[in-house]
Amino acid sequence: MSTNTGAPSNATGDDAIPKDYSQSWTGGIACPEFQGKPSCCNDYFNNPTVLDFEKLKTAFGNSGGGCDLCAANVMRFYCYYACSPNQTDFMHLNGYKDVTVINDTTNEPVTINVADINITYNSDDACNFFESCSKITFLSEISAGSSALGFITFQFDRGIATSYSQVHVAMKNDGGLKFETPPHRCNETFSSGYDQYGYPVPGNCSCNFCADSCEPVTEVPYGSIVDGLNVSHILLAYLFAILLTATHAFIRKWKNQSTMISENTDVQRGLLEESLGNQH
Predict the structure, then answer these.
(1) Disulfide check for 227: which of 52, 57, 223, 237 has CB 3.0–4.6 Å away?
(2) Alpha-carbon separation of residue 258 from 5, 254, 266 (angstroms)
(3) What does the pLDDT look like over 97-126, one tens digit per residue?
């Protein structure tokens, strides 16, 4: 996906002045948040971005093994970066330089001249933005998908060839001007199919692709192994077993003693008879 973020940096003359360009958007509406408002997004940006956002929804949204709220957050991030009339609050143009990129059509390296840009992004927004997308399939397949900064930088790097801009991201959470677009949590729902900014959210996000949608794990407290059992019945059973064992042992011992007494009596009788016989 190569979104045309940064196209306004190529604008000159009247096109470099924020104004309502939405009347000239002929290929659909990529950034509904800026419809009817002053922005930096002319038709040059809007038309190809509409097509790119269709690919984006497949890569990040429910249909592609992801989360529609994540896709909406990505679209709004791109739109605010490219269209905001307050770009000077969070963006600084360092100048222009040549960079080598891979041409999407020929898959060959080409050298292009790009705008070298720094942006400052709210670190809390960056972390929440990343969290809303952290479980989607697309991110699990790229090494840059393991952190908020890597996730955001990766997206800008993919757009260098089409936006003709190389963007460096710094994050801060203290005072001062910065890029702020509070993202949706991925477990939010929108019955209308669109969020409050007009970006499409056709479906809810499942636990598989949204950590916030998972039910909390309930910890089961450890207890005695006889919890929930009738303890009195168990004790009576043990007592009965003990008495039964003792009874068997007593009977066995009594039988042994009886046998020994009987044998002793026979021996004594034999000795007595033998003694009487000798006297005669």
Answers:
(1) 223
(2) 105, 6, 12
(3) 999 988 878 888 999 999 999 999 999 999
From the list 103, 1, 129, 131, the residue with the least C-alpha distance to 53 is 1
Minimum mean pLDDT range among 9-13, 42-46, 156-160, 190-194: 9-13
The total of other beta-carbon atoms located within 10 Å of residue 248's CB is: 10
pLDDT of 180 > 80? The answer is yes
The whole-number pLDDT of residue 245 equals: 59
Does residue 36 contact residue 21 with C-beta atoms inside 8 Å?
no
- Characterize the bridge pairing of strands 109-122 and 91-102: antiparallel
| Contact between 40 and 83 (Cβ < 8 Å) | yes
Give the span between the Cα atoms of 153 and 123, in whole angstroms: 13
Using CA atoms, how far residue 260 sits from 184, 253, 265, 274, in Å, is 92, 11, 9, 21
C-alpha closest to that of 104 among 148, 50, 55, 61: 55
Cβ atoms within 10 Å, residue 12: 6
> SS3 letters for 190-246?
CCCCECCCCCECCCCCCCCCCHHHCCCCCCCCCCCCCCCCCHHHHHHHHHHHHHHHH
Kindly report the backbone phi and psi dihedral angles of residue 172, in degrees, each rounded to the nearest multiple of 5, phi listed first.
-150, 155
Position 203 pLDDT exceeds 80: yes
DSSP state of 183: P
